[in-house]
Amino acid sequence: xxxxxxxxxxxxxxxxxxxxxxxxxxxxxxxxxxxxxxxxxxxxxxxxxxxxxxxxxxxxxxxxxxxxxxxxxxxxxxxxxxxxxxxxxxxxxxxxxxxxxxxxxxxxxxxxxxxxxxxxxxxxxxxxxxxxxxxxxxxxxxxxxxxxxxxxxxxxxxxxxxxxxxxxxxxxxxxx
Length: 176
Known about the structure:
Blueprint: H1 3-17, H2 25-35, H3 39-52, H4 55-82, H5 93-98, H6 106-121, H7 124-143, H8 149-173
């Protein structure tokens, strides 16, 4: 199978999952779920957690904050190197205008990173909750027409790799 055929299949199956142009509950849910992976939300939450949280949560906030920043830099470097255009559509204009590139999905990468770090650093309930949430953010990005499935799959792989590295690094340097 050649690369052009893979891209065509990616486009076809991604389009089948889209609900962005169909008003209703599915679009609303996908939009909300996709926004929960926004970097500004997570970075702000980690700053607040660091300021008001107990010591153990301050350490988790540091690892998450650092992981999100490093991953964001890698994702942006890849996006501006590869320059794959987002799927056509009207939904999500803020993302389309501020970042016209889709590969890899930063939201999918961030969601997976956060889930892996949460699972690695605990508590267990927190890790389970976020390891379920993370992949759903990526699928929501396909449903809203902002990414192709391959963008999300690449994001998940990056998030998994950087999440594991963050947990290992935290284990070496922080008494968590």
